[in-house]
Write a structure and sequence with these properties.
- This protein folds into three domains: 32-124 and 204-227 and 288-297 and 324-483, TIM Barrel (Alpha-Beta Barrel), CATH 3.20.20; 126-198 and 236-269, Oligo-1,6-glucosidase, Domain 2 (Oligo-1,6-glucosidase, domain 2, Alpha-Beta Complex), CATH 3.90.400.10; 496-594, Golgi alpha-mannosidase II (Immunoglobulin-like, Sandwich), CATH 2.60.40.
- 29% of the residues lie in helices and 16% in strands.
- The protein contains 19 helices and 21 strands.
- The strands form five sheets. Strands 11-10-9-5-2-1-13-12 form an eight-stranded parallel β-sheet. Strands 14-15-16-21-18-19 form a six-stranded antiparallel β-sheet. Strands 6-8-7 form a three-stranded antiparallel β-sheet, with no helix packed on it.
- The protein starts with a helix and ends with a helix.
Length: 601
């Protein structure tokens, strides 16, 4: 009798193992959470008020503790800092205020010790005007004449001594995208600031130069790259006269200096950008073949429509592109007034472009957009984390999101972001990115524990005494501990391999169901609104027991993990959210019947 019971348990165990082994084995990045580190604001190690590489290395164990598998660094390359690192004067060196190449090597070593992958921000579209390439190009030095996009001035009938830009193209930082260079006696094109001339990707030498840069950092041990402004690298080819056409008016604004004044059909989202990403993917795959190790990955930044983003995964011929074309739709398509139906539409439309065999990804914020808590409301911080981290695929977390940091009020006098400075005092607040780039809030000590110095490059948030890692670590239902619980939960088989469904129960209540036949189901329930809501889970999840067990609850909830509710009568308080673990009533009954038969026999 005893041996028969052991055999039964063995059969059940073997069945479960078989079910698990039948699942597609996911690559390391497909099951990862990534963390964006903005080096200038993460941790200062030397007291100058500016974050640095050694500060990041010191805190890598924190990233491991909150469940991250990798992190990507915003630019730390050598730079005059006109656009805080996105104007690069040497793609193969470190900005001195951030540290040295030896500091970076030490960071790679520590990351590998902790099992963390390192992703670098790759900025191929432009360099600094202080880069040696640009200096040589302005001098028309042999081999560098066409490294950048140069054009003759347009004749000026009113003043022959005052050159006019070649056409009407605009910069994303206001005004003409053309800057006159006295030395060369030509204009150069710059999509961003005048200190950031665009490289000419129609020059094969530039293409090879940028590939060599990727190989340089791969040799140092990095695990992949996030490609900045991927849709901007190629402009329309010049006509037979060497001219570029004007772009049409958009009709959305009368401000002729604003980037939105034009429809950017000749400068943004050309097919050649996608084809360049395919070349880089091939380079990374060849590198892995030659050197071994785990998959090196590409992330791409594009804020364009879904039909533009989809080819970055692959084309119809099967050419592979980025593993992670960033999904910004939770940022761009949702706001504080969005309904549950909006959430469902936004999520489902993204999943529709992710073919089988590819991984979705979810991004709630970054260094360019208003922080999650400010954009969606602080009462929804936990709700948004639950949505992001219970959906299938990869998560990307901007530093401070996990503790609920919000935008910081920055005065005109304190503003340093060129996007804000170029707007002037009357409109700087609408365009400045400084409010989302303020120092990370580590603890409740002076200057939030970011530095042991006397000041910081941007002001610390006024709420740092309550919103910080140290305080939240000891509060059970803090943003941080909820985030950590979610990161741990998503490592379970149901979240790695299970099916998914999104449900708009009504305008106010949104749900995600994750289901794996060999495991329990999970239901994420989010009340987006200010009134209580009652939900009958049996209407959208079949064959569950009457009792659901809370796995994770939001900070605003009066419930606690481990509480139970009746499936047919789940009451959601205003802005309450939780993840429920649903046992299968049919499975329990079946197993009870099997056990009974074995015992009788």
């Amino acid at each position: 009798m005893h041996w028969m019971w052991l055999l039964f348990l063995s059969i059940l165990s073997t069945s479960a193992i078989r079910l698990k082994s039948d699942q597609h084995t996911k690559d390391w990045w497909e099951r990862a959470g990534f963390y964006q580190v903005y080096p200038r604001s993460f941790k200062d190690s030397d007291g100058d008020g500016i974050g640095d590489l050694n500060g990041i290395t010191e805190k890598l164990s924190y990233l491991k503790d909150i469940g991250m598998r990798g992190f990507w660094l915003s630019p730390m390359y050598k730079s005059p800092m006109a656009d805080f690192g996105y104007d690069i004067s040497d793609f193969r060196d470190i900005q001195p205020e951030y540290g040295t190449m030896n500091d970076f090597r030490n960071q790679i070593t520590e990351a590998k010790r902790l099992g963390l992958k390192v992703i670098l921000d790759f900025v191929p579209n432009h360099s600094s005007d202080e880069h040696e390439w640009f200096v040589k190009s302005a001098n028309r030095e042999a081999g560098y004449e066409d490294y950048y996009v140069w054009r003759d001035a347009k004749p000026n009938p009113d003043d022959p001594n005052k050159p006019l830009p070649p056409n009407n193209w605009l910069s994303g930082f206001r005004g003409s995208a053309w800057q006159w260079n006295e030395q060369r006696q030509q204009f150069y094109y710059h999509l961003f600031t005048a200190k950031q001339p665009d490289l000419n990707f129609r020059n094969p030498k530039v293409v090879e130069e940028m590939k060599d840069i990727l190989l340089f950092w791969l040799d140092l041990g990095v695990d992949g790259f996030r490609i900045d402004s991927v849709g901007c690298m190629f402009e329309v080819p010049a006509n037979e006269n060497g001219d570029f056409p004007d772009e049409p008016l958009s009709g959305t604004t009368e401000d002729s200096e604003d980037f939105a004044y034009l429809e950017h059909i000749y400068t943004i989202d050309r097919l050649e950008n996608v084809e360049m990403v395919y070349q880089w993917r091939t380079l990374l795959e060849n590198y892995q073949t030659q050197h071994g190790g785990d998959t090196r990955i590409l992330m791409t930044e594009s804020w364009s429509n879904l039909d533009i983003i989809k080819p970055y995964f692959k084309d119809i011929q099967g050419h592979e592109g980025a593993q992670m074309p960033f999904n910004f739709r939770l940022i761009t398509e949702l706001n504080i007034t969005s309904t549950a139906y909006d959430f469902k539409n936004v999520i489902d439309s993204w999943m529709a472009i992710v073919d089988d065999g590819y991984a979705a990804n979810w991004v709630l914020g970054n260094h360019d957009r208003s922080r999650l808590g400010t954009r969606m409301g602080e009462q929804r911080i936990d709700s948004m984390a639950m949505i992001e981290l219970t959906l299938p695929g990869v998560s990307v977390t901007y530093q401070g999101e996990e503790i609920g940091m919000t935008d910081v009020d920055i005065s005109w006098e304190e503003t340093v972001d060129p996007a804000g400075c170029n707007e002037g005092i009357d409109n700087y607040a609408a365009k400045s990115r400084d409010p989302v780039r303020t120092p990370f809030q580590w603890d409740d000590s002076n200057l939030a524990g970011f530095t042991n110095g006397t000041g910081t490059w941007l002001p610390v948030g006024s709420n740092y005494r309550s919103i910080n890692v140290k305080v939240e670590s000891s509060v059970a239902k803090s943003h941080l501990n909820i985030f950590k619980s979610l990161m741990k939960l998503r490592e379970s088989d149901t979240f790695l391999y299970g099916d998914w469904r999104t449900i708009a129960i009504n305008e106010q209540v949104f749900a995600i169901v994750r289901d794996l036949k060999s495991s329990n189901r999970y239901i994420t329930l989010v009340n987006l609104g200010s009134s209580s809501q009652t939900v009958d889970a049996g209407k959208f999840v079949k064959n569950i027991s009457k009792i659901l067990i809370y796995a994770i609850v939001s900070g605003a909830s009066s419930h606690n993990p481990g509480d139970s509710v009746t499936a047919s009568n789940i009451v959601l308080q205003p802005y309450e959210a939780f993840v429920l673990e649903a046992e299968r009533s049919v499975d329990r009954k079946m197993r009870a019947e099997i056990c009974e038969r074995w015992l009788i026999d």
